[in-house]
Amino acid sequence: MTDARGSARPNGGMPHAPGTPCWVSLMVHSLDATEEFYGALFGWEFRPGPQPFGPYVRALLDGREVAGIGLLQPDSHLPVAWTPYFASADIDRTAESVRSCGGTIGVGPLDAAHAGRLAIGSDPSGAVFGVWQAAARLGAAVTGVPGAPAWHELTTFESATVAKFYETVFGYDEEPVVSADFDYVTLRLGGRPVAGVHGVGNAVPRDRGPHWTTYFTVTDADDAVDHVLHLGGQVLKPARDETHGRVATVADPEGARFRLLQGPR
């Protein structure tokens, strides 16, 4: 993982460099209840649109976009989960690269109104991710400050093969952890860490399979955990000190899992 120091990019700024995590999105069964939960937890405000597939809102933090939440169809059986999106300058080419490297594209590429183009795919292990080619909407305008995404981490069976997939598709450099009992690769772009791949072998949850997890920065992880419980969420792993800060694993009332990260003081 990287550190939790924040950075902001004005909404009128330059697009994210290809391969950069640029957005995170959640599809839910109750949009109003989910807005209430995350608004209270992170201080988000919400603005509608774009809505090419149904109701969708953008979460804003101090007026800057940080995430999106959309409404699932009533008969949908898709898992409720946060999905990271990676920037692309040519989404059709990226989608073809995903396929040629053993992944799949389940949605798109297609237009998201005037905002840009998107695709949703999965890597060879089955973990779902998105791809975004910006037009009017550049993606997240702030990261790593309280209430904003700080890090994205893939939990999978083993890191080497899957990391190579993302390296080929998005142009990352790999920085493996040299350890006999810890299988981890940091994906870097332009010398900067942007995401992690954690191989856990048979410890991959059977009910979820390989999956991406988003870390959100908080000022105080223990207080945030208490807030999650008060708002009707679940605590899956209590806050504990790790190398890069204090981390807790939680879930919102619909079961979408995420991590709370309090950076080192």
UniProtKB/TrEMBL annotation:
CDD domains linked to this entry: SgaA_N_like
All residue ranges annotated as the VOC domain in the record: 20-134, 148-263
Domain of life (superkingdom): Bacteria
InterPro entries xref list: Anthracycline_SecMetBiosynth, Glyas_Bleomycin-R_OHBP_Dase, Glyoxalase_6, VOC_core
PANTHER family recorded: CONSERVED PROTEIN (PTHR33993:SF10), GLYOXALASE-RELATED (PTHR33993)
Descriptive protein name: VOC domain-containing protein
Annotated source species: Streptomyces griseomycini
